[in-house]
Amino acid sequence: MHTTIPVSIQHDPVRLVLLDQTKLPEEELFLYLDSRDSIYEAIKKLRVRGAPAIGIAAAYGMYVCLARQAYPSLEAMAHDFTALKQYFASSRPTAVNLFWALERMQKRFDAELRKQEISRSLMLKALLDESNAIFAEDQAMSIAIGEHGLKLFDKSKHWGVMTHCNAGGLATSGYGTALAPLYLGHERGYRFSVYSNETRPLLQGSRLTAYELAKGGLDVTILCDNMASLVMKEGKINAVIVGADRIAANGDAANKIGTSGVAILANHYGIPFYVAAPSSTFDLATKQGDDIEIEQRDAEEVVNGFGKRTGPKDVRVYNPAFDVTDASLITAIITEKGIIEHPTTEKVAKHLLG
């Protein structure tokens, strides 16, 4: 079997090319972005989303914006680099991959700046090389996560798997994180029936996950978020697998709002709950989930998200984009390095640092 998944990020020498995920599933529209404001807006407004994809887009965005300016000196470029980095970092506060990618670009910039013979063109080449490396490593990471994650599934069994939000090709540059084991397993003859929670309020599960799984040839069923308990009770779900936007040092994992509720239900019904994420999603400086900043988004996403008002204009709306699943509810975290069973601070540190 061959799996076909949509490509969310492309690039050319002077523009960042993104598949506008706000238009899916009805329209596949690519955006050609060449300004800092358009790239910031694309990240902020979820035209590109998913922690790894945000990081990749920001890295290429740094290169594109710097390449389009004629700086009088490398000092002037360095000053603008700092301002641009801070600007992009302010777009999404929870997804740690954004900051990881920006810091990686900063380190490469600083290393090149220390060289005796460095020009604007050589600096830009170095930044493009670094962006390409982040992109390629993310693709390899997807495969590695998929290989490790597939070890948790018995090929002789037909698996009912629940997902929440989107952590596939649209959220990365390859097979994804949470969906990578499903894509690889599908290619190798594993039998999966995927139940994709719609993921209120922006419906990433129904608009994006169901879209790309169906396009990849997998069996997928869309569920309203409030149906999760029933289908678990009915015995349709054998495992839950989700992605993450930030994982604290103790294994607490921030993911799309509603994830923690799914984890609590899975724990109640004795269903394994897996988190799949690259090592770049771990934030060892954040000791526990309570310390993770949770992004608050516009009220209109809840009461007028898709053009039809579903709530009164004069009523307050609470719209956190993420919640945190306690490590005690996580059966295992799957990374490109392997599997952390029943994560703790000690196990996470050993896994990442050796």
TrEMBL record:
Pathway assignment: Amino-acid biosynthesis; L-methionine biosynthesis via salvage pathway; L-methionine from S-methyl-5-thio-alpha-D-ribose 1-phosphate: step 1/6
Site residues by UniProt (Transition state stabilizer): 165
Entry-linked Pfam families: IF-2B (PF01008)
Enzyme Commission identifier(s): 5.3.1.23
Catalyzed reaction equations: 5-(methylsulfanyl)-alpha-D-ribose 1-phosphate = 5-(methylsulfanyl)-D-ribulose 1-phosphate
Record has Isomerase as a keyword: yes
UniProt-listed InterPro entries: IF-2B-related, IF-M1Pi, IF_2B-like_C, Initiation_fac_2B_a/b/d, M1Pi_N, NagB/RpiA_transferase-like
GO MF: S-methyl-5-thioribose-1-phosphate isomerase activity
Listed transmembrane segments: none
The entry's keywords: Amino-acid biosynthesis, Isomerase, Methionine biosynthesis
Coiled coil: none
Enzyme active site: 245 (proton donor)
Xref: NCBIfam families: eIF-2B_rel, PRK05720.1, salvage_mtnA
Function: Catalyzes the interconversion of methylthioribose-1-phosphate (MTR-1-P) into methylthioribulose-1-phosphate (MTRu-1-P).
Name recorded for this polypeptide: Methylthioribose-1-phosphate isomerase
Organism: Sphaerochaeta associata
